[in-house]
Amino acid sequence: MEDQDIVFFYKNEKNKDNESNPCFTCYSRIIPEGLNFTKVKIEEDIYFRFQKCMSKSMTEEILKRNGLVNLSHFMSEGMFRTQKVSVPDIMAILNFTPDSFFTGSRVINNSQIERARGSGCQFLDIGAESTRPGSLEVHSNEEIERLKSAFEMLKDTSNQKISLDSRHYETVSTFIDRIDVINDISGLTDIRLPELALKEKKSYVLMHIRGNPTNMNKMTTYTDLRGEMAKFYFEKLRQISEMGLEPERIIIDPGIGFSKTGEQNLEIIKNPESFNFGFRRLFGHSRKSFLSIYSKNKAEDRLPETIAVSIYLAGKGVEILRVHDPVENINALRYFQLFLTP
């Protein structure tokens, strides 16, 4: 039994007689010791948040009552499992773009792919559209053309699973037979993507974002960052579970750098337990601008900061890390693992 941060979502709705009809739903996350009762107003909704000790069976029942019937047992088991310090799986970033924020991630030839393959990483994440803040959307036709050469370079078999970083159904459906993971950064704006994951038995990454890469930096105001993110996840997870996608195929990504300030990114990274809903968690922190809060380094010089965050998240039990430098991160994490061995 652990302390849970229970977020009660309250909205006044009117019934047919125009009488007030309070509607409650509940979200849960593990919190640090000592959080006091708070009440925050978000638009027309009110959140009552307080620390309370709950049992696993009680949590499962609350999840059922609030529409997560298909996921209730899976999530309650995951929320109350003991967090084990371990070396996470590594997802290596391979960008087939001319404008990704880190030039070193732009694939020029096979040598970059072979280096990633030889690193021992578990995933290769292939992308052909930059989603850095302020970037414009790439049409799926152009994205597909870029990816044709990418998959030609990847035609040899490998031990890594292939993740496709795309928010376009046309693109994903074109290459669905070549991939294992649909990495959707849109925040589930196209329901056809998880439906495709269900049909083709692929994993699906659900990432938190507001707006889109073009305007997301203007959408960073939160009353309760982690509370609002929990609300987002529970609503989207309800949609996904209702279509029948197995929970083992769902991965959640808190969207580091997407519609969040540097300080908000740090808050999320410091508290990965807030997203321990039972699913695998994917953090994509590598070389991003929030890492320059203290060092002022440019993307090309943020590898030490990236590795520091990778080790911290490994210590918190995060399951997957998406990084530009798989060799360096894996080497550091292997040394970290030495200190975990009795």
TrEMBL record:
E.C. number: 2.5.1.15
GO molecular function, one term: metal ion binding
Matching SUPFAM superfamilies: Dihydropteroate synthetase-like
Coiled-coil annotated spans: none
Catalytic activity annotation: (7,8-dihydropterin-6-yl)methyl diphosphate + 4-aminobenzoate = 7,8-dihydropteroate + diphosphate
InterPro entries xref list: DHP_synth-like, DHP_synth_dom, Dihydropteroate_synth-like_sf, Pterin-binding_dom
Pfam families: Pterin_bind (PF00809)
Record's GO cellular component terms: cytosol
Pathway participation: Cofactor biosynthesis; tetrahydrofolate biosynthesis; 7,8-dihydrofolate from 2-amino-4-hydroxy-6-hydroxymethyl-7,8-dihydropteridine diphosphate and 4-aminobenzoate: step 1/2
Reported cofactor(s): Mg(2+)
First-level EC class: transferase
Keywords, ordered alphabetically: Folate biosynthesis, Magnesium, Metal-binding, Transferase
GO terms under biological process: folic acid biosynthetic process; tetrahydrofolate biosynthetic process
UniProt entry tagged with the keyword Plastid: no
Domain called Pterin-binding: residue spans: 88-334
Name listed for the protein in its UniProt record: dihydropteroate synthase
Organism for this UniProt entry: Cuniculiplasma divulgatum
Highest classification ranks of the organism: Archaea, Methanobacteriati, Thermoplasmatota, Thermoplasmata, Thermoplasmatales
